[in-house]
Amino acid sequence: MNAAISTTSWGLPPDIASGLSAIAEPSRARVIAYLGQGERCVCDLGTALGLSPALASHHLRVLRSSGLIRERRAGRWVYYALDVSRLEQLRNWIDGLLTPSNIAAAASVRSDCGLDAAATR
């Protein structure tokens, strides 16, 4: 089994689930893409993405609580940037999830479930 996706119950680790849930919303995915160009303040982000200040702040709050972005305060201004190490963890987990195991890839392992029922028909 791929170590990148191992969990105790075959479920998503909570931090991965939180990150995936956060970027599943299209506006938040756009925020992530925009912040990929560099650190931004909320006013720049709202203007660039066509979001009201309240809605931009809401999306930033969700992304911050999921750990995907970080903030930096400079006086009365707050600047937001991607948490690159956290995004790398998420990317690695997704890569492990979508990459077949060596056994499955090499042997094209198929389930034999239902073969007995199909043979008796």
Describe, in plain words, how this protein is organized in 3D:
- The protein is about 55% helix and about 10% strand.
- It is mostly helical and about 120 residues long.
- The protein has one domain (about 10-100): Winged helix-like DNA-binding domain superfamily/Winged helix DNA-binding domain (Arc Repressor Mutant, subunit A).
- It has a 3-stranded antiparallel sheet with strand order 1-3-2.
- The longest helix has 15 residues, at about 85-100.
Question: Would you spell out the secondary-structure blueprint of this structure?
Answer:
Blueprint: H1 14-24, H2 26-35, E1 40-41, H3 42-49, H4 53-65, E2 69-74, E3 77-82, H5 84-98, H6 102-107, H7 115-119
Antiparallel strand pairs: 1-3, 2-3
Helix pairs in contact: 3-4
Which features would summarize this protein structure in a list?
elongated, Arc Repressor Mutant, subunit A, 3 strands, 56% helix, 3-stranded antiparallel beta sheet, 121 residues
Number of beta strands: 3
The global form is elongated
Number of domains: 1
- CATH structural fold name: Arc Repressor Mutant, subunit A
**Cα-atom radius of gyration:** 20 Å
Arrangement of strands in the largest sheet: 1-3-2
Can you count the helices? Answer: 7
Query: How much helical structure, as a percent, in the residues?
Result: 55-70%
Q: Give the full name of the CATH homologous superfamily.
A: Winged helix-like DNA-binding domain superfamily/Winged helix DNA-binding domain
Biggest β-sheet: count, sense, barrel?
Answer: 3 strands, antiparallel
Q: Briefly note the structural class of the backbone.
A: mainly alpha
Mean of residue pLDDT values: 84
Indicate the CATH architecture: Orthogonal Bundle
Low-confidence region ranges: 1-9
Distance between the termini: 35 Å
> What CATH first level would be assigned?
Mainly Alpha
H-E order: HHEHHEEHHH
